[in-house]
Specification:
Structural class: alpha+beta
Radius of gyration: 25 Å
Number of helices: 8
Number of strands: 25
Shape: globular
Distance between the termini: 68 Å
Helix content: 10-25%
Length: 449
């Protein structure tokens, strides 16, 4: 069967597209789900049967036109209340780029859901109702994006049709939000005036706002520079599995398999295994059954070392000249995601990459109030959706990078050792304020490290 030139070009274009992970956030009724629905609908990323289902559901609710918000609000409770409760992930593509979208809830009590959705995002779209302007929840979402080191933030000033598409309204909101976000350290902010309901500046340029000369939402999503090239970062390979076939064909083969979290590894390079600190050289790299001289993130590889040293799951292989410090004292910012509180003195498990160790919460120095970024000192515990600073003592040394340097190797989870419930998501290193050096504390509960 022959392939036409057009098909070949299309295939080449699709193979060359990059991936953008982005999250949407905003207050209740700001129109997040409508924006996402409009984005999917106008970019022709919705199947006919999905549109028919939405049209039918909209008619049953007495709506004359299809409610595009129903494309993302899939839970019955969401549809009944007209709100977003859980994080809804959507996958779509244009000829220029592939997308993974996380539509996150707007309620204050679902802050943890936004943290989940934005934790891997390259870009966050923060919606604001043009009639209400920047409110507390808007500042909260900007603060979460800054905490999670999301590199790009889009301010989508929605419902411009309800303020007569006035440039002055948009300009005032954009100025206020940009000043706040820049103060948080957000590196790039792009403000776009839109009407998700009418489709203005979502996919197609608006004829009602000729004073705006910037990109539409989709155009910005397609063209924003997103670098997935982590080859220049600190090289890190968390060991997932030790391969030791012990067969007649491979009697002495010992390989250390895992996905490269960041950076590049080369044959002949001196490496250190953490936390033991033992050193060796990369004798070989196996990639998909083939020997290669170099491998980089995010490839899954098997490293062979020149020396027969003790390496097991949970160890971290790093270049000897760029090895992070190991410590049993961890100071970090955490978002508490469990319904049960996290308290001082609590025993937990800390999962970092492929390594899980016992730990104790030694101190909770402060709880962050996202509305105004004030610190509530010594709260004693964190409850669901709280974000605060913690000091943790681990049973074994860990090699954590600062989250600001590496979102992959600077993050961790706190887990309930009794039932495996995830308690909190942590980001090692500084947040907004300068943290104090952890003080040595003697544990009195039996877990003495």
């Amino acid at each position: 069967m022959s392939t036409t030139g057009t098909t070949t070009e299309e295939l080449a274009g699709l193979s060359a597209t990059t991936l953008l992970r982005f999250a949407t956030a905003g207050s209740v009724d700001d129109g997040k789900s409508t924006l996402v629905g409009r984005l999917l609908h106008d970019s022709k990323s919705v199947l006919t049967d999905q549109l028919e289902a939405v049209a039918s559901a909209s008619r049953s609710r007495g709506a004359a036109e299809p409610d595009l918000a129903l494309l993302t609000d899939g839970l019955r409770a969401e549809r009944e209340q007209g709100i977003t409760i859980d994080v809804a992930y959507r996958y779509f593509a244009t000829p220029r780029r592939r997308f993974i979208l996380a539509d996150t809830p707007g309620h204050v009590q679902y802050t943890r859901n936004m943290v989940t959705g934005a934790s891997t995002a390259d870009l966050a779209v923060v919606l604001v109702d043009a009639r209400n302007g920047v409110i507390e929840q808007t500042r909260r979402h900007a603060a979460v994006a800054a905490l999670l080191r999301v590199p790009h933030v889009v301010l989508a000033v929605n419902k411009m049709d309800l303020v007569d598409y006035k440039e002055s309204v948009f300009a005032k909101i954009a100025e206020e939000f940009t000043a706040y976000a820049v103060g948080l350290g957000v590196p790039e902010i792009t403000a776009i005036p839109i009407s998700a309901l009418a489709g203005d500046n979502v996919v197609e340029p608006s004829a009602n706002m000729d004073w705006y000369g910037g990109p539409t939402v989709l155009e910005h999503l397609e063209t924003v520079p997103v670098s997935h090239d982590l080859t220049g970062c600190h090289a890190r390979l968390p060991v997932q599995y030790v391969i030791r076939p012990q067969t007649a064909e491979h009697p002495d083969y010992r390989g250390y398999a895992g996905q490269i979290a960041a950076g590049t590894f080369r044959v002949g390079e001196s490496v250190t295994v953490l936390p033991s600190g033992r050193t060796s050289k990369v004798a070989g790299i196996d990639l998909l059954g083939t020997s290669v001289d170099v491998a980089w993130t995010p490839q899954s590889v098997t490293l062979l070392l020149a020396d027969d040293i003790d390496v097991s799951r949970g160890d971290l292989i790093v270049p000897s000249h760029d090895a992070p410090a190991t410590s049993q004292d961890v100071e970090a910012t955490v978002c508490h995601v469990a319904d049960t509180p996290l308290a001082v003195g609590q025993r937990v498990l800390l999962k970092h990459t492929t390594r899980t160790v016992k730990a104790i919460v030694k101190e909770i120095p402060s709880r962050l109030t996202l509305d105004d970024l004030s610190q509530h000192p010594e709260p004693g515990q964190l409850v669901a959706n709280d974000i605060g600073r913690v000091k943790i003592r681990t049973a074994e040394p860990l090699a954590l990078d600062n989250y600001a340097d590496s979102r992959r190797t600077g993050s961790f989870l706190l887990i309930d050792p009794a039932d495996g419930t995830t308690l909190a998501a942590g980001m090692a290193g500084e947040a907004f304020a300068t943290a104090e050096t952890p003080a040595a504390v003697v544990d009195e509960d039996g877990w003495d490290f």
